[in-house]
Amino acid sequence: MARGGGARPLSGTYRNLGGAAIGVPSARSGGRRYCSELPPSSHGPPAPSGPLARFRERWSLRAGTDAEGTITRLSAGADLTPENLWLLICSAILASIGLDTGSSAVIIGAMLISPLMGPILGVGLGLGVTNRHLLARSLKELGFATLLAIGTSAAYFVLSPLAEPTAEMIARTRPTLLDVGVAFFGGVAGVVAGSRRQASLALPGVAIATALMPPLCTAGFGLATGDWSYLFGAFYLFGLNAIFIALSTFLVVRILKFPRQQTLSEEARRRERRVVTTVALIATLPSVYFLYDAAIRVRENDRIARFVEREVEATGRAAPQWEHRRIGDQHILRIYVAGRPVDSIAADSLRRTLRAYGLERLSLELVQSDISAEDLARFEGDVQRNLVRAVAIAGAARDSVAETRARRDTMRLAEAARELAAAFPEVVGVAYAPRLDLLAPGPEVSPPAIFLTFDQSSRPMDRRAIIDRARALLRRRLEIDSLVVEARP
């Protein structure tokens, strides 16, 4: 403090260490001076200044990342424990049933319980952190899980009485480049969600999007039925998903800068990048062809639809159906025509017109019927009206039958109750319940019941004997073998 009582400024630079300001000597003061302890700052680190810094902070994946915990969780998840093996078998059976019956809900359930994602993420993590032991272990577990799933599904389809191709199976035999995108971005979402310190709700969605078990079970169907197109096509989809989920895991791990467990030379890193890139390209090439082929089919079908509409139906004819079939190397366009007959001259003209629509490789076949286009339109309208009328009549008949049956059952019950009261004077009341358990869905689950009210002077022994005789009488009269007869308490 200065003699004048005013505050004298301290020279030097100060650093705040845990709330204590420590003086650093300045060049001008030539000495060291210390200030008293100052309260720590409550504002934390300064906020990033500038739009670029704020943009980086908003989109940074490293904030909230738990690298050590993620490595521990993914490494543990790569092992197929006994419970995971049973989950794998159950998932394979569920997926096979869903594919066999065409049930999307069952297939989705199988995706959610499948443990296949664990070894695949372990492969990507092992590459990303240079853990060769984890990489080898994950590949071994993935190979075993793959064989177990295919074997389980093949056993199911050998025993299944259905075992016919369904739309769910066919959809998994020709993967395209779009499936590569689903696998890659699904894997990115899974790793980003799993690397957070707080649990994420995105993981079930990732399991559904990156379908792993249904392709394996479709491959099992191909193995069981000897249809190699299903076996290899579906297995390629599974391999594509597995490779790009592992690749996305590897990339996210490197972007988040997870610590490597082994130091690699620059040459080793270049070799690693070349191997990953080569595998990704080789795996992608067939899907590019499939996507190209699918795009050609969509455009060709659009041209066929325009040809039928403009060249066939515009002439006053009707073409209710057409189909494009491939027999060997020949592509056949079969059109079903109703209305004015197409003579040979008109048919040849239609075949020449195919070239104008880019359909010159198709061989045109016309299947003609005697019905006119007007009759066909009227027939279609009549079918719809008759269908609505038939549904209404069936509903009314069903209601009428139910009402008639209810009246008949009521009359039979009343007659049986009167006969019961005449045969057993001790019975003073009869009550009927359509179901013994009112919460049961129907009589096949809970049978109907009759409750007898006895005179207070009757003995319990007599009541039991009357119940047995009344049960036999009522079952015979009402023709209900499962009828329950009890004493009302």
Fold and architecture overview:
Residues 1-44 have low confidence and may be disordered. The strands form three sheets. A three-stranded mixed β-sheet has the order 3-4-5, with helices on one face. Among the domains are: 67-263, Glycerol uptake facilitator protein; 317-371, Alpha-Beta Plaits; 411-487, Alpha-Beta Plaits, CATH 3.30.70. It has 15 helices and eight strands. It has 489 residues and is mainly alpha-helical. The protein starts with 12 loop residues before the first strand and ends with a strand. Helix 3 (82-101) packs across helix 6 (132-159) and helix 8 (177-194) packs across helix 11 (228-255). 27% of the residues are buried. The chain has helices spanning 51-59, 67-77, 82-101, 104-113, 117-128, 132-159, 167-170, 177-194, 203-209, 213-225, 228-255, 266-312, 344-353, 373-423, 460-478, and strands at 13-17, 20-24, 318-327, 330-338, 362-368, 427-433, 449-454, 484-487.
Blueprint of the fold:
Layout: E1 13-17, E2 20-24, H1 51-59, H2 67-77, H3 82-101, H4 104-113, H5 117-128, H6 132-159, H7 167-170, H8 177-194, H9 203-209, H10 213-225, H11 228-255, H12 266-312, E3 318-327, E4 330-338, H13 344-353, E5 362-368, H14 373-423, E6 427-433, E7 449-454, H15 460-478, E8 484-487
Parallel strand pairs: 4-5, 7-8
Antiparallel strand pairs: 1-2, 3-4, 6-7
Helix pairs in contact: 2-5, 3-4, 3-6, 3-10, 5-6, 5-11, 6-10, 8-9, 8-11, 8-12, 10-11, 11-12, 14-15
How far the N terminus sits from the C terminus, by CA atoms, comes to 100 Å
What profile does the largest beta sheet have? 3 strands, mixed
Q: What's the helix-strand series? A: EEHHHHHHHHHHHHEEHEHEEHE
The backbone outline, from C-alpha atoms, is: flat
Spatial order of strands in the largest sheet = 3-4-5
**Helical stretch count?**
15
